[in-house]
Amino acid sequence: MSKNLVIVESPAKAKTVNRYLGSGYMVKASMGHIRDLPKNKLGVNVENDFEPEYQVIPDKKKVATELKKAAQKAQSVFLAADPDREGEAICWHLTQLLKEANPNIYRVLFHEITKSGVEEAFKGWGDLDLNKINAQQARRILDRLVGYLISPLLWKKIGKGLSAGRVQSIALRLICEREKEIKDFTPEEYWTIQALLRASQSPDFKANLVKIKGKKAKIKKEKEAKKIVSELQKIPFILDDIKVKEKKKNPPPPYITSTLQQDSFRFLRFSVKKTMTVAQRLYEGLEIGDRGLTGLITYMRTDSVRVSNEALAGSRKYIQENFSPDYLPKRARVFKNKKKAQDAHEAIRPTCFDLPPEKIKPYLKRDEFRLYTLIWNRFVASQMSPAVVEETEFKITAAPYEFKAKGEVVKFDGFMTLYSKQKKDKLILPQAQKGENLKLLDLESKQNFTQPPPRYTEGSLVKDLEAKGIGRPSTYAPIISTLQDRVYVLKEKGKFIPTDLGIFVTDYLIKNFPDLMEVEFTANLEEVLDSISEGKKEWVEYLKTYYSLLKKDLDEAMKVQGVRKKGIPSDEVCPQCGRQMVIRESRYGKFLACSGYPDCTYKKSLGKKEAKPVDENCPRCGSQLVVRYGKYGSFVACSNYPQCTYIKKEREDTGIACPNGCGGTLMKRKSRKGKIFYGCSSFPQCRFATWDQPLPQSCPQCGQNFVLRRNSIKKNPFLYCPNKDCDYREELEPEKIWEKEKLGSDRS
Fold it and tell me: Of residues 25, 54, 299, 419, which has the active-site annotation?
């Protein structure tokens, strides 16, 4: 009897789903999108209702052929891509590809990849959601129109290798405008005064000057601050009033995509891209001991805080069994979604409440464990009792001056035992009586300056984009990567700084495409896409409106003279002649050069680390050696380049004998493309080389050194004997992988 074919996106997901389905199913992976618009042309017929010209992606032709053959043999085909617009589009493209091979095609939705989640999905299989498909097509075509029509204009007018994007350019605009605010900011001096006081009981505490003669204290000069300090030393300090207020702090809702990205950056220092990559692995499934492949979290692309009744019951049971009764509220807490939330999926939460982080730590890599712990703690905390905090405020009079001291004590930590954004205890104030005379121990006046707004980090940029309704959290990772790849922004100490190139491109786009570069216009577009996915708006009609606006701006921009031949002006000055530096391009990329060329030939790299000197001289010409940064990483070379082309070859002796028995040892080296390989020290007399990592462990059968398959570490790592006449092989347990690897490498 023929089997049913189930198609998911990735092999990892296929492997996990296959565990939960019976022998009547065959699970295969499409490896993401199977069809897309062509790369070498626009691929959209704007004259014929924006008809897209889809084609099988060249790299996916083999996969497409295999899926067609499998569909022909199958009884039915079940499409199980991710439950969002992108997943719906993948399923639609698969339908177009496979409908001739097998007309029995159905859609199933996995919100979590667990046994119950998979079984539930197959109970409610149905048809594709055409509205979601139209919304995704509209987004894809809009992005193609902007990218393939504006980017060539940038190449012609400014320089090659530039790009514009519907959301990317808005994100860049926010970063550039923030930088302008910082540059235009004028700091203002102000002084603060703080008193160290002692009541009848300990501890001593500090109070801040807040009012002078009933008005807010504003001290602008040091002279004024010194005068006030001098007066205060002669005035008694009276505890005029005490306010004690007990308040409850409720837990935050479980994570949605954007809040997970923000918190993982703040707590774990994960980039947005890294967060989504690790979360994808947790969702698709990992090997968990006897359980085998298990999906650990629900779908990680969501804007909904909704939680299923089963999950609420599971979390409450866990709290009941692991905490005292005070930590479990009488009823499950239900959070309300924002108005714009699509509510297609649950919040991001653990799938199995009998798998707390510490229990499965041995089976997870460090980053997987840390992100899973963050998700676990946030979700369980969301169902715990509120924290109870006692706030105390002292009002202290030293007429005509008024001081205040605020303290906070956590009376009951509640949910904060698992998740808290702040310190549990603030300033602790002493037990004191109203009207009590306080002893002045010290007075401190401090000079301060008003601060400009901070530069964006990945977390704060995501937060601002979401607040303004720009793009979708699932698109933020590739946008941030593109901004850095194009050298529009640099990241220093985790903060984004726009380059001269980024600022110039932004100013050019704002001037020539004023409507499309408006934040409100782009935010409104997201609402339009939501309306299309709900069937409330017609997608082709909106594309016509958008394109007419785009074409009008394009026609006007073509008339404006460009700067490509002259170079893009920058704020930097040539250190040799004092002329303005400009950004130019060559076949090797963009660089900063003096505008006085050819009279002045000074130039330097753009967006790359500067060469750093090392305490060593070049063996050829005697000049100092420096660390340079190339396409494939760092290397040590002569500072007198290009007159001297010496490059120091980095080699590391592993101390492991060459398998050829030539007497040499294996050296750790880098290929031209920066890939690690191991070759014999006797080269060129002995030409032995291998990509696999040799280990200082001997095979128990033949005595040959083991080799670790480096490219299989994420899947099924194993040690094997490279001796062709020996078949010994040792499988590695998950927790032993890195321990074994450290024997032969310093790789962490």
Answer: 299
